[in-house]
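Q: What structure does this chain adopt?
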Amino acid sequence: MVSFLDFEKPIQELQGRVAELRETAQSGSIDIGPEVSRLQTKSDRLLRDTYAKLTPWQKTQVARHPERPHFRNYVAGLAEGFMPLAGDRAFADDLAIIGGFARIGGRRVMLIGHEKGDDTASRLKHNFGMAKPEGYRKAIRLMKLADRFGLPVVSLVDTSGAFPGVQAEERGQAEAIARSTETCLELGVPLIAVVVGEGGSGGAVALAAANRVLMFEHAVYSVISPEGCASILWRTAERAPDAAEAMKITALDLRRLGVIDRIVPEPVGGAHRDPGAAIAALATAIGEELDAFDGVSADDVRQARRDKFLAIG
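A:
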């Protein structure tokens, strides 16, 4: 069963009624098939209509849905022969960022991304996808390795932001994020970044200063979380919906502003309702973006990336 968000209560009630009727139909002799079909059609229509007009705050809730696919799900459904590479060769292995060699559509790539975890134990293990300096230094190492061997880099972004703890600051969090962003910009191989859930602050940009930036339809991408913005502007996180509206954090807004290049459609009701379809759509989009760079020289790849980011704003 899918976990329902607050704004999905009417959908939850309808689907609950459908489930009750189906159970009754199985145990009784009364034919209630037409009623079940009518309610299911109504539920499907309500789900479709609701997701067609989500507010930025509602999209933020969808992007954070605990059952939304995470990095390990994309590895399983998108990549073949994934070979994880661990550690930054300086301090430790940060499991908030995972990366390694893989094949996508038969093409060899370096696949890197944030992993949030999907239950209490795994979320703690991966620090809720909030990377520390060693995570970004691992990403730098892997991107440079890919550049050395001429492999495109694909990054999957899903983080509320870099870890803000004292230990991370002591080990040079800001410098690590800046170096990772710099490495993205200097690569001579194509870099395709995808915001698959929540893209928060420099922790996201450090893996997303790419030739092509893609976003799932219900993902969000912003310099700060809506709650953080509301706390600064209005001294209360309760105005997060207002902040989300003002910051233009949705894929449609960011595409209009030129911050991202492509929106990847999600199944009706969000990627968490049909992960397989969402991953298949992403595989197609990544393949098309990588194909566009076939035969492009390293200098032209760098220049295209430079021109793209200088043109923003």
